[in-house]
UniProtKB/TrEMBL annotation:
Keywords: Carboxypeptidase, Hydrolase, Protease, Signal. Residues 358-375 have a biased composition (Acidic residues). This is Carboxypeptidase-like protein. Residues 1-20 form the signal peptide. The keyword Signal applies. InterPro entries: CarboxyPept-like_regulatory, DUF5686. Residues 358-380 are annotated as: Disordered. It comes from the Bacteria. GO terms for molecular function: carboxypeptidase activity. The keyword Cell membrane does not apply. It comes from Marinilabilia salmonicolor.
Length: 877
């Protein structure tokens, strides 16, 4: 028995005993105050870690000899040679203030600060350092803490956390913690394979992908989707730089550069960036930015992990949230251990960097020597620019272009494959969340603070409460009634045993269930969706819907089905039938029903016009080749005119609604009368060099740098009992770009001609995206001052749209507005029909207000003569 107890004790204690050595201590300044997030780097292990917010550090190490480098911004770097035995080595560190020296500089006749010469070299070299590494394999430890300092009363009952599958209210002042051990494989230019080796969390949302995205991003990138980098080619337009001296760090001199935005903007950072002299790479940085949701502060420390290769080894990301009464603090810290680093062999290293690398590394380090080749013309220009002491802005841009051109040679030699592989893949190792505290104690490179340790105790207590509630849940009648009530009211999703079939019911209450218009009056509908996943690439969707128009006292219904096939050709066939009240315009360009309902009930303004439509339709779409799409459809419709049946409104009870007859000068009674129509149509569209992804066996289109060309034909045929007789040809080209930090130009042009229009319903006219409604729900190109149907035609048309979008155009140059994440746009729209001769619309708008809205002022002209003006707003959900 004694031997059994001894064996059990040995097995339990073995993990602790096996790794119970290393170095630990506290890092303080000269006044004895802790130095949080001080970087600790082990050159032999190519790994970095950091102290916690209390200045404590702890590094598990195997017995042996190590060099430890302690560094923190504002303090002198300290290096220690240590011998680790089989016990912990306690080593407290006192950091001395960094002495900043001023070098002798040649005074520029223009009085320009020396920082600009340094930053021009660094900006010019940024494309090189961005592409210097072809691949690396690294272990990343990530730790985050989260604390809510203030929760508005309205949100206190709705904000919860899920710990160990247990829901609990989010508490003010409590610290929540997460940590994870990850393996990251990077493959140039932008592919990351993320494997979660172990994770532990008491976060409200235990997803560290956002923080890892920050760690994986690079300040060598011109922009990372949030801010413009101080090393972007256009940085001189956005930032001012001030030289504050240099200090020595080992064998290199490091320049301290103050970065200040030229204007107040949420897209710009301020703080310090440290540039290595003669190498012109980042040594470290400490910058912050003011966002609409709060303040962000970023700290990074770089180290030479391989000959001439400086990569970040410690990260700190702090966020102070203050928005709509919510106040919270989020802190992330990370340490990186590079296990493998592979250089981009196709990238030519500038001679000046080769010389510096040879001087920086000791003789016993391996230096790769290659046969000398005759430098190219571009390489000679590049070397000449690097050799200059002071670069002009023009030379800086030239250097950056040459460096980028040189570094992209490898990409140019690769085959022009349009298939994109996923740039970020995450896998979670089995049992990664089941690691116990002993595992973390032996592998955690950044110690937990007492508050962070306390947060993990929360999960254990919640788990115990959950187990007790689970035992008493059986037979809980009140709980069953609550679930039934919730299902009936708000809806629910149901799955069969293998989850191949999903039924989604929207419930009795929902924004899409109730609507109002003068034709139907109040109407109410119910719908559900059935999704049958036949295999990994084929799916059938069935959507039945039924409603009731109270003022017309009639039932409305429709059902649609869509079956996917040929997944690599994006094939899909659709069928539908129904009896409904329909707008004369298609849904893509018609006024949103909710906007029209609000306008009707609040202002007695009805913009939409309706008719009765019973229909049977079928369509098919397929890729004939990559970027070449073919759509074909056919429909049989029974169309009837409808009148207003309700004059209800919240206000303006003595005012009548507008007639349900569209206002159009070429509209005749026979275009609105009861009739049957059989029609078919087909469209061919082509987008050159259309990039795509293959996801789970299905093709998903991504983007193209080229415009999309399209031609289509639609015909109404006198077959069966159909009276339709028309033939319409249409063609166009469009090029749309997403707005970012830099100006973009989007445009479209198309035209159409009715070769025959003997008999056709008004719904088959060519309609345009036009409406004088002051608020729209789509930001697509539109004629915002024309009435909904006045420009519709059954003869011919030409139209064009031009939109120039920039982050800084007019109003955002004002200091009071420069800090907004808005975009500014100039609009030019053109329409030419028999009824509208050379109608043009020009406008200016502010976009991305709260990331989803815009407002602008527009003016319309016909044949060069002023016609009208107005203000238009968009809520682009």
């Amino acid at each position: 028995m004694k031997n059994l107890f001894f064996a059990l004790f040995f097995l339990i204690a073995l993990p602790v005993i096996a790794s119970a050595q290393g170095v630990r201590g506290t890092i303080v300044d000269e006044n004895g105050d802790p130095v949080p997030m001080a970087g600790i780097y082990l050159p032999s292990e190519r790994t970095g870690t950091a102290s916690n917010s209390e200045g404590k550090y702890e590094i598990p190490l195997s017995p042996g000899e190590y060099d430890l480098v302690f560094q923190s911004l504002g303090f002198r770097t300290r290096t220690f040679h240590l011998t680790i035995r089989k016990t912990w080595l306690d080593l407290d560190i006192t950091m001395d203030p960094q002495s900043i020296q001023l070098r002798e500089v040649v005074v520029n006749p223009s009085g320009e600060d020396p920082a600009y010469a340094i930053m021009r070299k660094a900006i010019g070299m940024a494309p090189y350092y961005l592409r210097q590494t072809n691949r690396y394999l690294a272990d990343v430890y990530l730790k985050g803490s989260f604390r809510m300092d203030n929760i508005p009363r309205l949100l206190k009952n709705s904000l919860t956390i899920s710990v160990n599958d247990v829901e609990a209210p989010l508490e003010e002042g409590r610290t929540y913690t997460m940590e994870s051990m990850n393996e990251i494989t990077f493959i140039a230019p932008d592919t990351f394979q993320h494997t979660v080796l172990a994770s532990r969390s008491s976060f409200p949302a235990g997803d560290e992908a956002t923080a890892l995205g920050f760690i994986n991003s690079s300040f060598y990138e011109p922009d990372n989707g949030m801010v413009i980098s101080p090393l972007a080619p256009q940085a001189m337009r956005h930032y001012k730089f001030r030289y504050e001296g240099y200090f020595e760090d080992g064998d290199v001199e490091v320049n301290k550069i103050k970065v200040t935005p030229r204007r107040k903007s949420q897209q710009l950072v301020n703080g310090y960036i440290y540039i290595v002299q003669d190498l012109w790479n980042i040594h470290s940085l400490d910058v912050e930015a003011e966002m609409f949701f709060g303040d962000i502060r970023v700290k990074q420390v770089f180290q030479p992990v391989k000959e001439g290769v400086w990569l970040p080894v410690t990260h700190q990301f702090d966020l102070d949230v203050s928005m709509m009464g919510v106040k919270a603090v989020v802190d992330y810290s990370g340490s990186v251990k590079y296990k493998e680093v592979e250089l981009n062999k196709e990238l030519e290293t500038p001679e000046i960097l080769l010389a510096e690398s040879e001087d920086s590394f000791s003789e016993d380090e391996e230096v790769t020597v290659t046969e000398e080749e005759e430098p190219s013309k571009e390489q000679k220009k590049l070397e000449a620019l690097l050799a200059k002491e002071d670069l002009s802005n023009r030379e800086m841009m030239q250097l950056a272009r040459l460096m980028e051109k040189t570094s992209e040679k490898e990409e140019e030699r690769q085959p022009a494959d349009l298939e994109l592989t996923s740039t970020y893949n995450m896998t979670v190792k089995k049992d990664s969340i089941k690691q116990d505290s002993a595992f973390w104690e032996t592998r955690r490179p950044i110690p937990l603070t007492p508050l962070e340790q306390e947060s993990y105790a929360l999960g254990d207590s919640l788990a115990a409460v959950h187990a007790a509630k689970k035992d008493s849940a059986a037979g809980d009648v009140d709980g069953w009634l609550d679930k039934a009530t919730g299902f009936a009211t708000f809806g629910k999703r149901f799955f069969n045993g293998d989850s191949s079939v999903m039924v989604n019911y929207n419930g009795l209450i929902g924004l899409g269930n109730v609507n109002f218009n003068p034709v139907d009056g109040w109407n109410y509908k119910q719908s559900l969706s059935v999704f049958w996943k036949q295999d990994s690439v084929h799916r059938l969707e069935l959507t039945p819907e039924a409603g009731y128009a109270f003022s017309r006292d009639e039932l409305m219904w429709k059902v649609k089905a869509r079956q996917t096939y040929a997944p690599l050709l994006r094939g899909e066939v659709s069928m539908g039938a129904g009896d409904e009240t329909s707008d004369f315009k298609s849904s893509g360009i018609a006024v949103n029903s909710w906007v029209d309902m609000v306008a009707s009930l609040a202002f007695k303004e009805n913009y939409k016009r309706y008719f009765g439509r019973r229909f049977v339709e079928v369509s098919n779409a397929l890729d004939l080749a990559n970027g070449l799409r073919w759509d074909v459809s056919a429909a049989y419709e029974w169309m009837t005119p409808r009148l207003n049946n309700s004059n209800y409104s919240f206000f303006h009870r003595d005012k009548d609604y507008h007639s349900n007859i569209p206002e159009n000068d070429i509209l005749f009674f026979h275009n609105l009368e009861e009739q049957e129509s059989f029609s078919w149509g087909t469209t061919i569209s082509y987008t050159p060099r259309y990039f795509y992804r293959i996801h789970k066996g299905r093709k998903i289109m991504s983007h193209s740098d080229y415009p999309t060309f399209s031609v289509s034909v639609k015909q109404g045929i006198q077959a069966f009992d159909s009276s339709a007789d028309y033939l319409f040809f249409e063609g166009g080209v469009e090029h749309e770009k997403d707005a970012g930090f830099f100006p973009v130009l989007s445009w479209a042009a198309n035209g159409g001609w009715f070769a025959r229009n003997e008999a056709m319903h008004f719904s088959h006219f060519k309609h345009f995206n036009s409406s004088a409604v002051p608020v729209r729900i789509t930001g697509s190109p539109a004629f915002r001052l024309l009435d909904d149907y006045e420009a519709s035609t059954n003869e011919w048309y030409l139209q064009g749209h031009l939109k120039y979008t920039s982050p800084y155009l007019l109003l955002k140059r004002l200091p009071v507005l420069s800090n907004r994440l808005w975009q500014e746009s100039l609009h030019f729209d053109y329409l030419h029909t028999p009824g509208f001769r050379n109608y043009t619309q020009v406008g200016y708008s502010i976009d991305q207000i709260l990331l989803m809205g815009s407002i602008g002022v527009f003016a319309g002209f016909e044949d060069g003569e002023y016609k009208h003006w107005g203000v238009s707003a968009v809520l682009d959900f």
